[in-house]
Write a structure and sequence with these properties.
The complex is a heterodimer of chains A (about 300) and B (about 500).
Chain A (H helix, E strand, L loop, with lengths): L3 E12 L2 E12 L3 E5 L6 H9 L6 E6 L6 H4 L2 E4 L11 H11 L4 H14 L15 H13 L5 E5 L7 H16 L3 E6 L2 H7 L2 E6 L2 E6 L1 H7 L3 E5 L13 E5 L7 E6 L6 H9 L6 E3 L5 H9 L9
Parallel strand pairs in A: 3-7, 3-8, 5-6, 6-7
Antiparallel strand pairs in A: 1-2, 1-4, 8-9, 10-12, 10-13, 11-12
Chain B lengths: L1 H15 L2 H19 L5 H7 L4 E7 L5 H27 L2 H7 L1 H9 L5 H10 L2 H8 L17 E4 L3 H4 L4 H9 L5 E3 L2 E3 L3 E5 L11 E4 L6 H20 L4 H5 L9 E3 L11 H37 L2 H6 L4 H34 L4 H10 L3 H28 L3 H27 L4 H6 L5 H9 L6 H30 L8 H9 L5
Parallel strand pairs in B: 1-2, 1-5, 6-7
Antiparallel strand pairs in B: 3-4, 5-6
The chains are: A alpha/beta (about 300), B mainly alpha (about 500).
C-alpha cells in the first residue's frame, strides 16, 4: 500500500439492477488532497459511503489505513456528508462536542477542540446558538468542524462547497488547505471544477460509475488533445491541411473562437505559421493548456451533465 | 459501550426535556390526584367506610354462641358509625352552639371516648347512628357535606347445607372457601370468607373452636369473633358459679381457636398473595404498556427524523449501526424508567394519602421486593422486557423513511406484540405452573414472564434460563434491526409497506 492512506481495488456497487460503481480502482496518498469528480449520479457518494463502511461493496476491496473500513479505522476518519443534517435544537458548541466524543475524544479535550475550531472558523460568537438559529453557511461550517474536531488522519468531504456563498467557499478552501498542510489526507467530491483545480493534488474522475481518469492536473491536461484557440474574421477551415492538426472546430453559436485540435506532440507554432502564409488576420491566438473543466467535459462527453466550471 | 451511552444520554436529555414528554409524564399523576379528590368524603370517613365485606358462617354445636356473635355484629356497626360520626362532627359541627345548646351530644361526639362501652350504649339508647345524626343535624355548619354511615364489615350467613351436615367440615367447606362455589346471601350469591366451628366442649373448655379460611394472613374477622366468644364464655361460666379464676382464664380463650386453611398447598382465589400478585402484575403491565408505547414511539419518530434529515448518515460515520441501535434502545429504556418511576411513586403517594385503606397493596409490594436481589431481578427483567419489545418498534422505525410510513408500520406491529404482553398476565395466576415455566424459556416471552414470576420465588434454573434466552433474543434483534436500518438508510425517498417491512425483517434488502 506504500504511503497510500486509502486503496480501492476493482470496487463495484449494485443496488438491485442498478450499477452505481463499476470496478473502480484508485489510491489516496498520505497528506495530499484528492478530488473525486463527476456529474451527479456518477457514483461519487456511493464510493465515499463504501470507504466509510456505511455500505459494503458488492465486489472488490476497500482498504483504509491498510484495513477494511469499519470500527478499527472509524475514529481516524472525518466525514462531511453531502446532505447536511444536524440536531436542530442543539447548540453549535454541544453539537461539535457530541460528535467529537462519539469519535473518541474525552470531555475536556472535546470541549477545547470545539472552542478552538469554532473560534478559528469565525463562529465563536454563535457557539451557544441552536443550529436552527444559524444561517446555512454557518451550519455548514459547524458540520465541517464536527468532521475534523477529533483530528482525523483522513477527511472525506462530500460536495463541501454546495450551497455556500463565495466568501464561505473561500474560507472553506483555506480550511481544507490548512488540513493538508498539517498532514491530513483530504478526499473530497465535487462537480465544481474550479475548486478542484485550485485545491487538488490529484483527481479521480468518475463517469457513469466508471473511472475515466486518475492522476494530476498536468496528466489530465496531457490526457486530452491540445487545443489552440483562434479568433479571426476569416474562414480557418484550411487549417485542416496543416501537419499535426487533427480537427478544426468552427465557432459555436454564441462563440467567436475556432478550436484547432492538435495531435499529441504537435507544435502550435505550425498553426500560427500557416495563418501567416494565408494572410489571415488573427485577433486571438491562445495556446493555454486546457482547464480541468475542459478536460472533464472531454472525458465525460455527453455525460458531463451539471458539472460547473 | 461509551458510544452507546453517549447516544442514549443525548436522546434521553432531548426527549426528557421536551414539553410533550413532560406532559405525558405528569398527566398520569394528575389523573391519580383527580381520581382521589373526586369523592367528597373526608379521609377519616374513607377510613371508616373502607375495608372489604366478609361473609362468614358459624356451625355452633353449643347452641348458645350465635346470639352473642349477632349482638357483637350489631354493636360493631354502631361502634364504627360512632367513629365516623365523631370525625364528621369535628369537621362540620358548629362546636360552640352544640356545646351550648346540646351539651350531652357534644360530650358524646366531641369529648367522649369513642371506644368505650358507655358511648356505644348511649348511641344505641338514642336509636342508633342515624338517630344520633338527626340529633346533630341542627348544629351543622352551612353547606356541610352529607354524612355516610359506614357499611357493615361482617355478615353472618347460614352455612351451606352440605357443610353444616358434613362429617368432615373442612373438606366440605373447601370449595366454598376457595370461591369455587358461592353461597346464598341476603342480596344474592356471595363468596364465603370463613367458617367458624364451635364444638360442644367449647363451653367447658374441653374443645377449642376452629376457624376455616383460605387466607390465613388476613385474620381481622377471627380477631373480631374472639371478643364475643370470650365475653359469652365468661358470662356463661359466671352464671354457672364457676370459680373466679376459671372466669378470668376465659380471657383469651378464643386464642384456642385453631385456624385452618383447607388447601394450604395452593393459593386460593381469595388469597392475599394471589390477589396482590394478580393486581400488581396487571398494574405493572399497564404502566409498562403505556411506558413502552409512549417512549418507543418517541424514539422511533426521532429515528425516522434522523434518517430523513441525514443526521443518521453522519452518525453511521462515527459508530456502527448496532451501536447506534443500542444507543436508541437505551434512550427508550431511560425514558421508560423515568416514566414508570414517577408514575409508581405517584401511585404509592396517592394510595398513602388518598386511599389509606388500600395501603395493604403497597405494604405487600414492599414485602414482596424486600431484598436487593429480588429488586435487582425484577429490574433486570423489566429492562430486558422493555428492550426486547422496543427493538421491534425500532425495526419499524428503521424500515420507515417518513413519519407517515412509520405510523403505518408501527400500528400493526403493535398488534403483533400484544400476545407478548398478555401471556404473562395468565402466568400471574399460577407463577409456578407449567405454562409459566415453559414461557420462561420462550424468546420474547421470557423476560415478561420472569418479571411476573419474580414476585414469587421461581427456581434458580428458570431465572438463569430466562436470562440467557432474553439476552440472546435481544442480541439477535439488535443485529437484525441494524441490518434493516442499513438497508433502508440509502433509500430516503422510497416508502415501505408493512408487508415489505416484514420481508425486510426476514431477509433485509441488499445494502
Amino acid at each position: 500500500m506504500g504511503d497510500a492512506v486509502l486503496e480501492l481495488s476493482g470496487v463495484t456497487k449494485r443496488y438491485g439492477d442498478f450499477l452505481a460503481v463499476d470496478r473502480v480502482t484508485f489510491t489516496a496518498p498520505k497528506g495530499k488532497i484528492l478530488g473525486l469528480l463527476g456529474p451527479n449520479g456518477a457514483g461519487k457518494t456511493s464510493t465515499l459511503r463504501m470507504i466509510l463502511g456505511i455500505t459494503p461493496p458488492t465486489d472488490g476491496k476497500v482498504e483504509v489505513f491498510g484495513r477494511p473500513p469499519g470500527r478499527s479505522v472509524q475514529r481516524r476518519i472525518g466525514y462531511l456528508p453531502e446532505e447536511r443534517g444536524l440536531y436542530r435544537r442543539m447548540t453549535a458548541f454541544d453539537t461539535v462536542v457530541y460528535f467529537a466524543k462519539l469519535k473518541g475524544l474525552w470531555g475536556g479535550k472535546a470541549r477545547q477542540r470545539a472552542h478552538d475550531l469554532l473560534e478559528e472558523l469565525g463562529l465563536g460568537h454563535v457557539k451557544d446558538r441552536k443550529i436552527e438559529a444559524l444561517s446555512k453557511g454557518m451550519a455548514q461550517k459547524v458540520q465541517l468542524i464536527t468532521a475534523i474536531a477529533h483530528e482525523p488522519e483522513l477527511v472525506i468531504l462530500d460536495e463541501p462547497f454546495s450551497g455556500l456563498d463565495p466568501i464561505n467557499q473561500n474560507e472553506l478552501e483555506a480550511a481544507i488547505r490548512r488540513l493538508a498542510d498539517g498532514g491530513t489526507t483530504v478526499l473530497f467530491s465535487t462537480h465544481t471544477m474550479s475548486h478542484a483545480e485550485r485545491l487538488c493534488d490529484r483527481f479521480v474522475i468518475l463517469v457513469k460509475g466508471r473511472k475515466a481518469f486518475d492522476g494530476t492536473l498536468n496528466e489530465a491536461r496531457a490526457a486530452i488533445p491540445r487545443t489552440v484557440k483562434l479568433e479571426s474574421p476569416n474562414d480557418l477551415s484550411f487549417l485542416r491541411g496543416v501537419k499535426g492538426v487533427t480537427n478544426v472546430v468552427p465557432p459555436a453559436e454564441g462563440s467567436t473562437h475556432w478550436d484547432i485540435i492538435l495531435a499529441p506532440g504537435a507544435d502550435p507554432q505550425a498553426v500560427l505559421a500557416a495563418c501567416f502564409e494565408h494572410n489571415v488576420k488573427l485577433t486571438l491566438f491562445d495556446t493555454s493548456p486546457p482547464t480541468l473543466h475542459e478536460v472533464f467535459v472531454t472525458l465525460a462527453g455527453g455525460d458531463a451533465g451539471d458539472a460547473e466550471p | 459501550m461509551r458510544q452507546v451511552w453517549l447516544i442514549a444520554w443525548r436522546g434521553f436529555v432531548q426527549h426528557a426535556t421536551s414539553r410533550a414528554f413532560l406532559f405525558g409524564l405528569l398527566l398520569l399523576p394528575v389523573y391519580m390526584l383527580i381520581g382521589g379528590i373526586l369523592p367528597t368524603a373526608s379521609t377519616s370517613q374513607l377510613a371508616a367506610l373502607g375495608g372489604p365485606i366478609r361473609h362468614f358462617a358459624v356451625i355452633d354445636k353449643t347452641g348458645v354462641m350465635i346470639p352473642a356473635i349477632d349482638a357483637a355484629l350489631d354493636r360493631d356497626i354502631t361502634a364504627r358509625g360512632l367513629l365516623s360520626l365523631t370525625a364528621y362532627a369535628e369537621e362540620n359541627a358548629d362546636e360552640d352552639r352544640l356545646r351550648k345548646e346540646n351539651p350531652d351530644l357534644a360530650r358524646l361526639l366531641l369529648d367522649g371516648d369513642i371506644d368505650s362501652t358507655r358511648s356505644i350504649d348511649e348511641v344505641e339508647a338514642k336509636g342508633g347512628i342515624i338517630q344520633t345524626f338527626v340529633e346533630l343535624r341542627p348544629y351543622l355548619k352551612p353547606n356541610a357535606p352529607q354524612f355516610h354511615e359506614p357499611h357493615r364489615r361482617f355478615f353472618r350467613i347460614e352455612p351451606p347445607a352440605d357443610v353444616a351436615t358434613a362429617d368432615n367440615v373442612v373438606e366440605a367447606a373447601s370449595p366454598y372457601l376457595k370461591a369455587e362455589k358461592l353461597v346464598g346471601g341476603d342480596f344474592g350469591p356471595v363468596q364465603l370468607w370463613a367458617v367458624l366451628i364451635i364444638p360442644k366442649g367449647f363451653i367447658d373448655g374441653s374443645e377449642g373452636a376452629e376457624y376455616l379460611t383460605d387466607d390465613t394472613d388476613r385474620i381481622g374477622l377471627r380477631e373480631f369473633l374472639r371478643v364475643p366468644l370470650d365475653n359469652e364464655l365468661k358470662r356463661i361460666r359466671a352464671g354457672a358459679y364457676v370459680p373466679k379464676e376459671a372466669i378470668e382464664g376465659v380471657v383469651g380463650a378464643a386464642g384456642t381457636i385453631k385456624t385452618t386453611d383447607p388447601d394450604p398447598e395452593t393459593l386460593g382465589a381469595l388469597s392475599n398473595i394471589k390477589q396482590f400478585t394478580v393486581i400488581s402484575a396487571i398494574a405493572v403491565y399497564l404502566l409498562l404498556f403505556m411506558a413502552v408505547f409512549m417512549t418507543a414511539n418517541m424514539v422511533v419518530m426521532a429515528l425516522v427524523e434522523e434518517k430523513s434529515n441525514r443526521v443518521a448518515e453522519l452518525l453511521l460515520s462515527c459508530v456502527r449501526a448496532e451501536t447506534l441501535m443500542a444507543g436508541k434502545l437505551f434512550t427508550g429504556l431511560l425514558l421508560a424508567i423515568l416514566l414508570v418511576g414517577v408514575w409508581m411513586i405517584s401511585a404509592v403517594v396517592s394510595i398513602d394519602v388518598l386511599f389509606p385503606t388500600a395501603r395493604i397493596i403497597v405494604d405487600t409490594l414492599i414485602e414482596n421486593v424486600s431484598t436487593m436481589e429480588k429488586a435487582a431481578q425484577i429490574f433486570i427483567f423489566f429492562a430486558l422486557a422493555y428492550l426486547t419489545i422496543a427493538t421491534f418498534f425500532l425495526a419499524a422505525g428503521s424500515a420507515a423513511t417518513s413519519i407517515t410510513d412509520a405510523q403505518a408500520i408501527v400500528a400493526p406491529a403493535t398488534m403483533i406484540t400484544l400476545p407478548i404482553f398478555m401471556l404473562p398476565i395468565a402466568v400471574a395466576y399460577d407463577p409456578a405452573g407449567l405454562v409459566a415455566r415453559v414461557a420462561s424459556y420462550l424468546p420474547f416471552f421470557a423476560p415478561f414472564t420472569m418479571m411476573v414470576r419474580s414476585l414469587s420465588a421461581p427456581d434458580g434454573i428458570d431465572i438463569l434460563g430466562a436470562l440467557v434466552v432474553s439476552l440472546l433474543t435481544l442480541w439477535w434483534m439488535v443485529r437484525l434491526v441494524a441490518r434493516v436500518f442499513r438497508s433502508n438508510l440509502l433509500r430516503p425517498d422510497s416508502s415501505i409497506s408493512f408487508i415489505a417491512f416484514l420481508r425486510d425483517l426476514w431477509r433485509p434488502r441488499q445494502t
